[in-house]
Amino acid sequence: MITLEDIRKAALLIEGSVIRTPLVRSPTFSRMAEAEVYLKLEGLQKGGSFKVRGATYKVLKRREEIGPAGVVAASAGNHAQGVALAAKAAGVPATIVMPIWASMAKQEATLGYGAEVILVGESLAESISVAQKMADDGRIFIHPYDDEEIITGQATIGLEILEDLPNPDVVIVPIGGGGLIGGIASAIKAESPMTRIVGVQAAACPSALTALREGKRVSVRAEKSLADGISVKEIGEANFPIIREKVDDIVLVEEVEISSAVLALLERKKILAEGAGAVPLAALLSSKIKVPKGSKVVLVISGGNLDSPLLERVVRQGLLKNGRIMRFSACIEDAPGSLARLLSLVAEVGGNVLAIHHARGGKDLSLFRSRVDLEVETRGFSQIEEIEETLKARGYEIKVKG
């Protein structure tokens, strides 16, 4: 097991090489949860996630053993950037094997940090296998989570939390392979044993929860998830005993809850979190985790590397779910001024038109009428009802979508 002394040594070794990220209180989420809610913002870390901590500790601790071939790792994103940054800071070469489907943005970021990127493998498991074979050529392999030195590096987050907020009541942490929660739990339970450690997984890939229920590591089926950073089919061998001993509970969150949490962090705190980083808030706001009223709760927002196209979809889906966007179709006379009158009515009740599609023809349309599809920004569901009632009162036949 990892000791508190091991973690303190790791913190000293990586000091100055990684950012000591802030722990900030959120008045908004505190009010919503009726507790004192703090956010540990690892998205502000170098490379945009906590991963650089473990990678930096591994590289610096093994610096004298690393030969001219450098280090090798496999990752679809955050671990790749963490290893690339750690290797660059230590002055050693880094080779990163990424699955062929890894996003272009994460490939470019990894290249930008000075690593060589090789695209091999239909799955992350295949990429890891290739990277491990490359270690036979003299490189040191850096596993993304199943490695005690990696876990020890991630544990430094726990020390920082306790320094800023002694004896928190609950610390909520994402779980993928288990390296992050294993490290944080090791640090916090050593100094604050009464603190509850709760892990959160996407329901699309419940590997840690399944392992705890069955009493052994198992491989689960993984569905596509916004929280792709924690979609690990089987938790690490080194992590499982730590999780079983030190983690008090594990809960699952659904995709719509994750999406809503990403949007809430963006709108309420101006914090960009990737899906995996937002799952602690998703669990709290959906009441998957019950916290005592007035208790001190820490959410580990583990990373902020959300690709721009995906962010756009997340925001749009969240706005639709929260009634901030209304989509509807209306039939109007195919005559000059008809569209202007419709838009004027929408404007009168405060709707802001975002998009219009005007279609003529169709088997269900008169030759003298046309259909207009509108997307309107609103303040919420009450304004959607007001727009709908106003238009119907003026004789419009409308169909609200979604």
From TrEMBL:
InterPro entries associated with the record: ACT_dom, ACT_ThrD-II-like, Ser/Thr_Dehydratase, Thr_deHydtase_catblc, TrpB-like_PALP, TrpB-like_PALP_sf
UniProt xrefs under PROSITE patterns: ACT
Assigned keywords, A-Z: Lyase, Pyridoxal phosphate
Cofactor(s) demanded: pyridoxal 5'-phosphate
GO biological process: isoleucine biosynthetic process; L-serine catabolic process; L-threonine catabolic process
Pfam families: PALP (PF00291)
GO molecular function, one term: L-serine ammonia-lyase activity
Ranges where the ACT domain occurs: 327-402
Superkingdom of the source species: Archaea
EC identifiers of the protein: 4.3.1.19
Family: Belongs to the serine/threonine dehydratase family.
NCBIfam families: ilvA_1Cterm
Protein name per UniProt: threonine ammonia-lyase
Species assigned in the record: Methanothrix harundinacea
